[in-house]
Amino acid sequence: MTAYAAGERATAWGVLGCELRAVNHRFLELGVRLPDELRALEPQLRERVASRISRGKLDLVMRLRSSNGGDALQVDDALVARLGELATGMYPRFPGLRVEFTELLQFPGVLQTQGVDADALQSEALALLDTVLDGFVQAREREGGKLAAVILERADGIARIAAEVRTLVPQIRAGQRQKLQARLADLAQPLDPGRLEQELVIWLQKLDVDEELDRLDSHLSELRRIFKGSKEPAGRRLDFLLQEFNREANTLGSKSVDARTSNAAVELKVLIDQIREQIQNIE
């Protein structure tokens, strides 16, 4: 399911930013990009994301930006003072000596960078990730609610078509029985009535779709139960359920001897494919 969330957190070492984005994927695939200061935290970050997200192609990006536009720098004033005293004492010997400010900063030990407390920074990163994950999950839940409404609407369409087929089945059976009897009546040698009835029963049983329609109803009940009663990730379970939907629609089409049920099977497969596409977005 597509989703996006981002956040920032001020730390003693600069502003820590985090972005988490996802696109549809059948399984969980997580890509991570971190600043050097947080490289060692990657396994924990992956574990934290996987504990709350089970499906999707995700990209997690963290950045550390100094609040003053660069690394926090400090000057060793005592060392600069000693260097100044040394320069003053040597001036009579080297009156033309000039030292640029940038050259002074390059002297070993003059310019110092503020060290990073790795443990503290990692704690800040984990706290920020938790906040971003909260927003990410909420965004997914909002989108999931919209997708559920669309899928349940298609499920209602499947139920309507299945009900229409149920009303057609008795008519189709009667019509096929009459056609078969008319053809047999044209035979030069009439068949034994008992044998005729037996053949009719066997033939009509091959056209029976009550079992397929019952299974469709059962699958629809399970689909609605998942959306209305379950809070657990259900994307893979729905994938399997849609395979069963498709199996019943295929069987219904293969048994069809009437244009109306053939059209119904096609309409069923269209609705099932539409649901299948949307389910790829569901965790």
Sequence-ordered SSE layout with sheet pairings:
Layout: E1 3-11, E2 14-23, E3 28-33, H1 42-50, E4 56-65, E5 73-75, H2 77-90, H3 101-105, E6 111-113, H4 118-185, H5 193-206, H6 210-229, H7 235-255, H8 259-279
Parallel strand pairs: 3-4
Antiparallel strand pairs: 1-2, 2-4, 5-6
Describe this structure in words.
The protein has 283 residues and is of the alpha+beta class. Among the domains are: 73-113, no CATH class; 141-279, Butyryl-CoA Dehydrogenase, subunit A, domain 3 (Up-down Bundle), CATH 1.20.140. The protein is built from eight helices and six strands. Strands 1-2-4-3 form a four-stranded mixed beta sheet, with helices on one face. It is rod-shaped, with a radius of gyration of 36 Å.
